Each structure stands twice: as C-alpha cells, then as structure tokens.
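Entry 14. Structure prediction run on the chain below.
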Amino acid sequence: PNAFHAFSLVKQTPPHILLLSAGYLILICITARKGNGWKFFAAAFVVGYSIVLCFCAIDLFRYVLSVVLMLHLLAAVAVLRFADLCGDRRKLNHVLPAGFAVLVLCSQLPNCLDTLRQFKNDSRSRLREWIARNVPAGAGVAQDPSVGLLRPGRPLAARVVQTSGSVSELGELSKLPGQGISFIAVDDGDYGRYFDPLWVRSPEFRNQYQWRRQWYEQLFRDHELVWSSPPRYPIYGDGTMTEIRLYRLRQ
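Output returned:
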C-alpha cells in the first residue's frame, strides 16, 4: 500500500469541499437510524474506492477523479442537509445553499477560467514556437516523451532526440554535447515522480530511481534554463498542461 493517491485526492480537492464532505460523513453517522441505507452508498463508494487506490502502483492523478467528483456531490448534499436541520429559522435554509454557491464561485471560478485559458494556449505548442524561432537549424534537442516535440505541429529545423523513456537514458550530461545535443527539454509529468516522496518505488528499481533523480538535479543546477511554462494553477493533468522546461547545456 502507498499514500500517493490519498495525497493526490487532497491536492485536487478544494479545502471547503473536503471539510463539507467530512461533515456529511459525520452527519450520516449521527443520524444513522433515521431514513434508509441509501445515504451511505456514496460515502461507502468514496471510502472503498480510496482504499483500493492505496494498493495501486500506477501513479496517475486522473485515477482519483471519480472520488473528487463524489466529494463535490457529498459537499453539496451536506449543505442541503444542514439547511434542513436549520428549518425556517431566520431563513437559514435558503441562506446556507446560496452562501455555498457564492463560496464555490469565488474560490473555484478563477481556477476554472485559468484552466480554460491554458487549454487554449498549450505549453507544448508555445515551446515548439520558441524553438522554431530561437534554436539553430540542426541543433540537437533531447526531450522527455511528454514534451511532445515529435507530435504533429509546426515543422522544426532542430533535430529532436527522444528515448523510449526518461531523457536521462541518454547518459551522462557531460557527454551529450559531444553527441550533438545542445538543449534538453523536460516535462514535470516525467521528472516530477523522481522528486515526489510519495511516488511508488519498487525495490528492484531503487538504484535507477536514484540515478535519474541525480541526473535531473544536475541538469537543473548546472545548466542554463532558457524557457519554462509554470502553470498558475496546477491542474494535475497526466501529460496535459504540466510544467515544461528547456535547458541549454553548458560545455
């Protein structure tokens, strides 16, 4: 078992949604003898599916999306249940749902709008444009697979190099200029796992994990960052709008 998906769930769910959904779980436990058992169904799905994910060795953020959606539903139901408990007292049964709607709009609308803006202006397309304008023809650009320079798009005069996995598979950084490689493009979706303490690491790959982490650390520390695309709001998309960096190798 591991905690990657549990923490992923917390990262992707707004704090007020977590609090309200937790309040719903407490409320249905307090009122367990009232009504029927259907009110436990959604809560049981959230708890059960989360436990199953703790035994999943594949570290993809999208695996918890169904739970994130269910938590939003539980939060909305919690507001309605609390409003019902208030009765007609000072019209709180109307004020609470309205206040919740305003809270959601104020806290989540900026994030949603920024996400839409990011999809209209994809970082991989912007990197391709930058390379087309600034990297000399024939210069070698090695990339992590998620960077996507080999995908259809504006033709590049630079020579793009990609391995089957991490770009670190090319070997020692000091030897890459001798192979005609002048730039390294890396994607958080590929290198981020080597810096995440919650990432699932099999014992037989521990040495490989450590070597790749040191490779990226050396790249970030010793070479020149010439372009990057840190998102304003992380959307935790697997291969979508992750942070891309382009480094120029120093001789």
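Strands lie at 140-143, 159-162, 181-187, 224-228, 244-248.
Filed with the rest of this week's runs.
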